[in-house]
Design brief:
By secondary structure, this protein is an alpha+beta fold. It has two domains: 235 residues, FAD/NAD(P)-binding domain, CATH 3.50.50; 183 residues, no CATH class. 31% of the residues lie in helices and 23% in strands. It has twelve helices and 22 strands. The strands form six sheets. Strands 4-13-14-17-12-20-18-19 form an eight-stranded mixed β-sheet. Helix 1 runs parallel beside helix 4 and helix 1 runs parallel beside helix 12. The longest helix has 18 residues. It is globular. The two termini are 31 Å apart. The relative contact order is 0.18. The model has no long low-confidence stretch (mean pLDDT 93). The structure holds flavin-adenine dinucleotide.
Amino acid sequence: MNADVVIVGAGPAGLFAARELVVHGFSGSILIIDEGPDVEERKCPERFTKICARCKPCLMVSGVGGAGIFSSGLLNLHPQIGGDLGEWLDPEQQWRIVEYVDSAFVEFGAPTRLYVPDPIKSAELSRKAAAVGMRFIPIKQRHIGTENSIRVIANFRDFLKNRGVHFLLKTRVESFNKGFVVLKDGKRIECRYVILAPGRSGADWLARECKRLGIQTRFEPIDVGVRVEVPSVILDPVVEVSVDPKFHIYTKTYRDFVRTFCVNHRGFVVREVYNNYVGVNGHTFESVKSENSNFAFLVRVALTEPVENTLAYGDAIAKQAATIGGGKPILQTLGDLRRGRRSTWGRIRMGLVRPTLTDVTPGDIGMALPHRIVIDIIEGLESLDNVIPGVASDSTLLYAPEIKFSALRVEVDKYMEPSIENIFVAGDGAGLSRGIVVAAATGVLAARGILRKEGLIN
Ligand SMILES: Cc1cc2nc3c(=O)[nH]c(=O)nc-3n(C[C@H](O)[C@H](O)[C@H](O)COP(=O)(O)OP(=O)(O)OC[C@H]3O[C@@H](n4cnc5c(N)ncnc54)[C@H](O)[C@@H]3O)c2cc1C
């Protein structure tokens, strides 16, 4: 089977690239290849609560719909959340493409309810944050939700199929070059254009292929920190303003960038396994609520010449934390971290917060994470306490490590085309995004690159 356009990856980037081609009258054949199964077959044994390495490929992140849509499916409707569309588009174009992606999800059945920060309360929060040198970023969000995601993605797939797009699933692409891709069984598919959108799960593969072909890549910053857990009443006032409040802070001592991320109000902390090391994440469920709220508190780590390998650094931190935690995440109260002593179950029980994750080792995060990151976390939480009183109390729980690795970034032009003509990249796998909306937008831009070459748009 040959095709005019081969798209590798059926996540948001790949699906939106295909959609953009068909809605602009591209008349050639389009083939989407994904190593995962179709959307209805994605039955994750962990019910999309953690990456557990039981299925290969992992059903949480692989298959039609890609990663993320099934576990939380929160659309962050902002061009600078989950990537930075400002790298390729002017401000008006950035907002237009975000709305474009959002309206397509709604067209395919995403709930029409939009979470919009209350303007008066949000201005008040921004003022409070600014007074202590922090930024509050009010954003609109749409929650697709696990219960709707299969229907939305199935509608998306049917829309594409009805317009002649072919899907080749449970099929891994092993290599590519200008004009063809090669499947795992050695079969070669000829094409005029390739769009590579393999997501985080395919990032290492894409980086290896880029290296082989001489396509330029660079290391991106990673985010290293902790999952913070507090009684839910502490977050009530800010969650009222925004369901996933985002604060950006520059710390006092090092002027490092620290941010809140992935707030789970009345949710649970969960384990997450990265490259053989264990870390943490957070989730909320519709049916079960906890008395706590949790959020990631992450320090941005960038390395500059001559040592730029943030992935190796992140791996080393994860490994050290795994050693100190005896293979489990480390739990410590903020009070103990401040006083430079390890936590014990006895001291944790004396505190106000009951941990929602107990398969952990009470210990000393100060011995697991680099000193600079520990200082950033303490100072950052103390700044945040001015806006969310109680968040930096002694009994606040910290779980470590939480690490957000970023893929090697492929160097592209504004149409997502790297140095080899007619090969395009999009989404998280190419280091261009870190969230559903920006991933989808880069898929749209890659498709527009093809449409331009075909003379279908200017
Ligand atoms: C647990 C979890 C929760 C998340 N929650 C959210 C959220 O609420 N909101 C948000 O904005 N973002 C969230 N994200 C991030 C979001 O899922 C990603 O940013 C987004 O899915 C990236 O889209 P993508 O198309 O680039 O890649 P993906 O969605 O990862 O899709 C890539 C696809 O390519 C396929 N593939 C990879 N390599 C190959 C190959 N060699 N051959 C064939 N197929 C291949 C994979 O099987 C996969 O289906 C979450 C991520 C995770 C893991």
